[in-house]
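Good morning,

Both structures are done.
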Amino acid sequence: MEEDSASGAETPQNSGGTASLAPVFEPILLQEYLDKLLPLLLGAEEKELDALWPIDENVKLLRKFANDTSVDAIYLSKILGM
């Protein structure tokens, strides 16, 4: 470990000289993909998609799916008659 002179914090050393960072996934990319896919698969209309994303719980689910390696799948369904 090497001490960062600016903060005094220790930083890990990498033998290759470059830091290894975990890939970051933006949930918005998944949302945009689903906006294109759902009309084809479920017959979702634009107004249904517009109503889907403002719901905070749905955005949280996308973030969890995108960033949590223990979540293997996300399931989508269309509820008819609503």
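Second structure follows.
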Amino acid sequence: MLTEQQKIDFVKAVAVWNRPSLEWADCVDENKGYDFAKLCEVENVAATRDTLADFLSGAARTAKRHEQQRTPAGVLHIFHEVQARKGARRGTAFVMDFVEARAAFFNVEV
């Protein structure tokens, strides 16, 4: 569903959001000393057929805050303090639309 490049672009988008001082171009070269995949690793990216509208009507309803960040790969949607199911810990959900599929990652707050 998602290509390897789409997963890498999603991880970069999350990294740039997480560390605003990090530039997109710096994510390309791991030899510059950036551990840009710290928050989200490529193998943790989930592909989903849920539409962005599904996320906006579902996650946005339970999220305390929703923000968007434009990146060279597309718009990263960040849903803060989302509860995946009743009684579960809240966390941050990241979603990016790649037309045929969405990349998603859920980071549970400790």
